[in-house]
Design goal:
single chain; 338 residues; mainly alpha; two-stranded antiparallel sheet; 2 strands; flat
Length: 338
């Protein structure tokens, strides 16, 4: 490099340094006020976005914080108007009472295995159906997919009577059997993709497979793979993100479901069923302790109900903390191609 080129390079560096070290107002004056306008606009948008996100997060977290505060208050703190969130007399008695009333050890185990078992069946069956809708042509394909959309749109309460009668008087080769009170009706519904939110899972999986490269399947067919082998060896490994999302959705919704649980699983103690009657059971609990009929105070009952809700939701919060990254990646990679 010649001396002339070195001088030119140093001059450019000097100009860059002088430009960067100029004051904000000098640069704003040089830009005819555009720099100040853009800076104000940038900070205003950032402040507005921050306030909006804070408000949305507060709306979601604030009820949870209220319930958390009530759960650690003693009975006399509940009627103290000077206490809002921070209790004066910290106590864990509400948690002990709530876990006793809910029969927590039994109900959480039952809820765990029922939710996991149902979620696995739903994801497996919905994956097969979603793959079929995305890859194969068959008679009345649009009509059947319209039925899937109806399963999403129509609330399950509209068919509750027919479901009740169908499984209460289930016709098995001419013999009437009562299938209610067991897992069998719910398993049959999940295997037929008529379980809780199954239409949504089919739609999500179908959308994901629509964006999947067709060349991978063509290569598998050339190598001698059939449709089922291609699905299990090629498509399923690549669909782990969407299958994970559907499993987490199914697990959470089944964990908190009370409609199907009451309709079919009434004899199995689940958290959602026990939580629905926690206020009445608290009154019975107080009457046993006090040795007679006792009317449970409204404030104390609300505290126990809030604690019971936290007890039921706590495992889901722990699950989300450990699966947050995987869950966000799953949703981010989900296709929306029609």
């Amino acid at each position: 490099m010649t001396n002339k080129e070195n001088k030119i390079k140093k001059a450019k560096k000097t100009v860059t340094v002088n430009t960067d070290t100029r004051s904000f107002w000098e640069r704003n004056e040089a830009s005819n006020g555009i720099l100040l306008t853009e800076t104000i606009k940038k900070y205003a948008i950032s402040i507005f976005r921050g306030i909006l996100l804070f408000g949305m997060c507060f709306m979601i977290i604030q009820p949870l914080l209220n319930k958390l505060a009530l759960s650690f208050m003693s009975e006399k703190d509940l009627y103290d108007t000077t206490i809002i969130l921070v209790p004066k007399h910290f106590s864990v008695s509400n948690w002990k009472i709530a876990t006793t009333i809910l029969n927590y050890k039994t109900t959480i185990w039952n809820t765990l295995w029922v939710s996991a078992f149902v979620s696995v069946i739903e994801v497996c069956m919905c994956a097969l159906v979603g793959y079929g809708f995305s890859r194969f042509n068959f008679p009345l394909k649009r009509f059947w997919f319209f039925c899937v959309i109806l399963v999403i749109v129509i609330p399950p309460q509209t068919i509750s009577t027919s479901l009740f009668l169908h499984f209460r008087y289930f016709n098995f080769f001419g013999k009437t059997i009562n299938l209610r009170g067991s897992m069998l009706p719910y398993v049959l519904m999940c295997m037929g993709c008529m379980g809780l939110k199954n239409g949504l899972y089919i739609f999500m999986i179908r959308q994901f497979f629509m964006g999947f490269p067709f060349e991978l399947e063509e290569a598998a067919y050339v190598d001698g793979c059939g449709p089922l082998r291609t699905f299990f060896q090629i498509m399923v490994p690549g669909a782990k993100p969407i299958l994970t999302s559907c499993f987490l959705f199914s697990f959470v919704w089944q964990w908190t479901d009370s409609f199907y649980s009451n309709l079919f699983l009434g004899k199995i103690q689940l958290l959602s069923i026990q939580l629905a009657s926690i206020a009445d059971k608290f009154g019975i609990y107080l009457s046993k302790i006090n040795g007679g009929s006792t009317i449970a105070p409204v404030g104390y009952t609300n505290a126990i109900v809030s604690t019971g809700m936290l007890v039921a939701v706590l495992p889901l919060i722990v699950l989300y903390i450990f699966c947050q990254r995987l869950f966000v990646e799953s949703l981010a990679s989900t296709g929306v191609k029609m």
